[in-house]
Queue: 4 jobs
Job 1
Amino acid sequence: MKCPFCGFGQDRVIDSRESREADSIRRRRECEKCNRRFTTYERIDEIPYMVAKKDGRREKFERRKVLDGLMRACQKRPISTIKVGQLVDEVEAFVTESSERERTTAEIGELIMDRLKSLDTVAYIRFASVYRDFKDVREFKEELEQLLSHHGEKRAKGEREAGEKRTKSQS
């Protein structure tokens, strides 16, 4: 806490008291540089983090909704609940780190799909099919083809690198 008088960053708490309404804590502090005293108040952050929906509505961010969507996408897949929990934590941190206290569903959805793509392609496709709201089989097929071509490129690169290593070790 910076001293309001001299701007020094070190102080000590002299007294702490709960407010009468029990909704905040009052702290008396003393600056360690200029020895002047000042008062601070701590309150629970009550302004909710919001999610801007595609249709323009705004909703309070709910961690549970993210978890439910990921659990459906990852159902019967070899993804541990710990990994799912870590992804939910990452999404929550992404939302709460926003200076505007708001993120769009597009930003959140893209973050989730990016992470799912590297975790499990089936879970990724499941999530993408709901998130992107494919209108027909053609859109679904296009997404699969992109995923397969990307997967094929990664496989070919891995095979090239393995071949180069074998060539070097034989030399």
Job 2
Amino acid sequence: MRFRFGLAAIAAICLAILTATPAMAASVSMTDGLTVTIPVGDSVTWTNTGTAPHSVTADDGSFDSSPGCPGNINACIQGGGTYTHTFSTAGTFGYHCKVHAGMAGTVIVQAGATEPGGGGTGGLPNTGPAGSTMIMIAVGAALLIAGLALALVARQRRA
């Protein structure tokens, strides 16, 4: 019986560890069109969660996910695709989709406290859990439920 309760305890600990893992980059859906704030040196990953092609193009031309888009529609970010850009300088960077005129957003990159003229927060925005985090939560929950079920079965057999 101790063994089965031990399994439940291990499952609970695994769940706590797996769900406490922090994100290392901000994640943005292509349709969000929002403002994201990050510290210098961090990355933003845009994900095309739909089926229509998109691009992520800086208004000032400093980054472009799909230089051949929209002329070559296959060069655009297709459904399920991602684009990640690391921001090495502080500033405000507007971006837009070259395929859809109304889709736009902003990335605010703040200087860290250790940089001259810094004083930013140095934290990542709360953009919600990443897809892999949700998988880990599901696995942890399944382990927890299995451990509890085993403990319940053991208890019923002894009675």
Job 3
Amino acid sequence: MMMPLRHLHRSPFHRFPFHRGGHANHRGCHDHTHRIDASAANVGKPECPSESRRIGPTVDPYIDQLFPSRQDSSAFFEMLSDPTVIDITVDIGRPVTLHFQNDGHTSSPQLPMNSNVVTAQDVQAIWNRVAGTSDNLLLDRCVIENTLHRVSCLRHFDGTISGLTIRLAHTTPDVHSLTDDFKTYLALGYSTLIFGPPGSGKTTLLRTIAAYLADYVHRRVVVVDEIGELQSVGTARRMCVHDSMTHADTILSVIRNHTPGAVVVDELMTHEDVTSAMTASQRGIQLIATAHADTLENVMGNPVFRDMLGGVQHAALSDAEMSQRGSKFVMARKTEPVFRGAFDVQRQQLYTHLGRSVDQVMSSRPSV
């Protein structure tokens, strides 16, 4: 019988040294937060493959034509083998540009390639090929066929496309690379919020968790997939968001109609998404979801996510407490958060008891 965890010492993913009997560089636990040694584990950042990486047969020929020579094209595709490459931008009037991760800094380094200057015809040709159907041509993003790479549009005021961002999907790690501690935490049924900035590896981790829960915990897992990024999820079932339903409606449909033991959702973004997530929690369903945020404080400060973390109310203090704190009121949670825990992908930091971690942040802030 598995017992509840007191401490999680490492990242959800083992890196190479752990598979050869190496020892993790453990750090101390501060209250309900565990910080992971980033040199020992990096979520969503696979080792560099030995051969050049291609984007996909749908797009490769069109990208290839943007380079003046075979040598320049080969150099570009060879660069894609670098696991720190997260985006390719193809903008009218500019060369093809690679963008790299930068250890959590706001501005990521970029490298303009030795390509021809991109034209409006180039951009439109790539988008027409990726989108495929006339219905998809009106969307702003879609996934490249037979891959997990995503293409998103920049548009002019008149709706025409001015540029494309190709987000390169990381290889989904094998579920055996999840640490035993994290496997136990998930197997206990704890709902977990995964947060981080764009490109930090949230979706990669989400796919791995979905496959683990379905194939090894044997939980009935349903993945809510909005644009096709949540493939490669083992035997988990997948519910796609189609034209007649919103993201939030699809989450509710899964809960009502498919008897899930766990629901996996990428990118909670709207009040409606959060309301659907709260419905899942109230029905005893394990929820694994991602959100865009840099820190836990950012998650708490987002009005959309506030109720999901327990809400905020102002409590009056006694005169004795006021003299100690210097304020008549303090902020406090209204209810328990939807999630038992949270994982900060960028800092490799796990909050094992999210409610108490939220309380700690609130207690350090003056009430307004």
Job 4
Amino acid sequence: MLLYKNSPTNGQTWLTHIKTKRRQLNLKLRGMYWLLGRRSKLSLENKLLLYKCVLKPIWTYGIQLWGCAKRSHTQIIQRLQSKILRSITNAPWYVSNSTIHNDLHIPFVATEISRLSFLYHQRLAGHHNALINAMTIPPTIVRRLKRQWPTDLSHITAED
């Protein structure tokens, strides 16, 4: 029997979820381009504030589970983030994305996934409910594949 990506028996895959997030971000960005675009007269601080308050919460919602998504899927959001930051700063083509991220003090998507996942597991570990505390204990299942689970990111510190 052939299972399709969006069939009810297979459920939603990471690729469809991330493409949906990308589509949501594109729609919101199109509506805000007159504020965030290259020709906008807003200051850089105000453009960054708009990015952090309006666009970033769209892709960070539920990011604690993204640790088990493939790197190629999270790079879809990273490419859009770099495109938005490049547009905000009106940076020329020869300025690298890492330079833009470092100058604006904006972490990369992979770093943000690790940081927020660590904080989430830290918050779960300190919870007073024993059932929620049990969620932080990784399962003792022998893994034959190289798949990651959301609990795999709990050992990474917030500074990494």
